[in-house]
Amino acid sequence: MKDKLIKMTEEAIEKISESSSLNELNDIRVLYLGKKGHITSVMKSMKDVAPEDRPAFGQLVNEARTKVEEALDEKKEALQKAEMEKKLAEEVIDVTLPAKRTKVGHGHPCQIALDEVERIFVGMGYEVVEGPEVEWQDYNFTKLNIPEGHPARDEQDTFYINDEILLRSQTSPVQARVMEQGKLPIRMIAPGRVFRSDNIDATHSPSFHQIEGLVIDKHITMTDLKGTLDEFAKELFGPETKTRFRPHHFPFTEPSAEVDVSCFKCGGKGCRFCKGEGWIEILGCGMVHPNVLEMCGIDPEVYSGFAFGVGLERIALLKYEIDDMRLLYENDQRFLNQF
Ligand code: DAH
Prior knowledge:
Layout: H1 2-18, H2 22-33, H3 38-44, H4 54-90, H5 109-123, E1 127-128, E2 134-136, H6 137-140, H7 151-155, E3 165-167, H8 173-180, E4 186-195, E5 207-217, H9 222-237, E6 243-250, E7 253-262, E8 279-288, H10 290-295, E9 304-311, H11 312-319, H12 333-336
Parallel strand pairs: 1-4
Antiparallel strand pairs: 2-3, 4-5, 5-9, 6-7, 7-8, 8-9
Helix pairs in contact: 1-4, 2-4, 3-4, 5-11
The chain binds 3,4-dihydroxyphenylalanine.
Residues 170, 172, 212, 250, 253, 284-286, 307-309 line the site of 3,4-dihydroxyphenylalanine.
């Protein structure tokens, strides 16, 4: 029995020293010291031992048990230490690795162009205001001197919600809204989205943006209009830029004009960019029609003013030399990242 015990102990200690994980170690503990373990069963066979030999036998088994327990504890500690070291080695942070770059977005070319236009007019003392995109036809047309049946309504065919309400076809209704508030003088620009029942192509979209401008005060004349827009063009396209005012017709201004800027690519000689013209059209403008002033509660005998409307996409296309408006709406990062 004694020899068997010694052999058992040696065997256990060998297994312990060969074990390579805490789980394996636990299995060995159960195998020898568990309720049905080998050493435990030797202890249980005490009853078969002659009473006078029992103390010595008990001591032997206890010694064997202690030896195995000690070996288990020692190995456990060693395995835990190794495991910790492995973890520390694996989880080490290499502070010399280059940091991951976070991508910061930037303004859309239309937004950059709008910021620029706002900067120019705010610098001249203008306020930036907004009006609703869903508008009364009254504001979109009637109060702008475009009564029902007027052909200008057809020209701006748009999306009607019902007989009275539509998606605004221009930012000009903001003029009427601001004038009606009765706070004079007025110096404002109103950027925003407009809608027209147009098919999409390189220069058209059913939804685009305009920037409306309005100045109302005593003694405002065409000179103020020309000087202001000439300054605007020079700020936007460079100090050499010249402007040209061509007579035109808008129902809400009289007289009205379209404004061209000298081509900033060829300086006016004529090139592919300006289609050989030397001039590029940028906006519509005019002196606010007395009918409009009256309909909006302003006395045309006392006050006068000028207005203008700029296409924002057009400005962005010109400024960044983009040849297709659709690129502005496609949200292709390869395109947008260039600005
Ligand atoms: N609303 C006009 C359009 O959409 C643009 C315009 C022209 C606005 C002349 C004005 C203006 O304020 O005076 O075609």
